[in-house]
Design brief:
112 residues; mainly beta; L,D-transpeptidase catalytic domain-like; eight-stranded mixed beta sheet; two-stranded parallel sheet; 44% strand
């Protein structure tokens, strides 16, 4: 079975889910603002939490870089903008869809 991976394009504000080399879904996202940019690099999903509370919406997927993650939002109008403290913010229905399709250890590549 081909492995899944996530590619995040911060300038396009888009998250892509791949199965092997095949794009299977893409989602609009919000990324870090100028003072707190989303850090480019190669990471993995380190933790998964359902209903983490607060501003993180309905799901949290912590990355292997501390204090950063892919999460939902309680402010859906922010999606598509550079407004976060470096995390990748998604609509709650999108983050729930993604959450079901990835596991701890899934590679995450963040590009500009």
């Amino acid at each position: 079975m081909p492995s899944r991976s996530i590619v995040i394009h911060t300038t396009r504000r888009q998250l892509e889910l791949y199965e092997g080399n095949r794009l299977i879904r893409h989602y609009p996202i919000a990324v870090g603002k100028g003072a707190t940019p989303t850090p480019p690099g190669h990471y993995t999903i380190a933790t998964k939490t359902v209903f983490p509370g607060g501003v993180f919406g309905s799901r949290w997927m912590g990355l292997s870089i501390p204090h950063y993650g892919i999460h939902g939002t309680n402010n859906p109008t922010s999606i598509g903008q550079a407004v976060s403290k470096g995390c990748i913010r998604m609509h709650n229905h999108d983050v729930e869809h993604l959450f079901q399709r990835v596991e701890v250890g899934t590679p995450v590549i963040i590009q500009r």
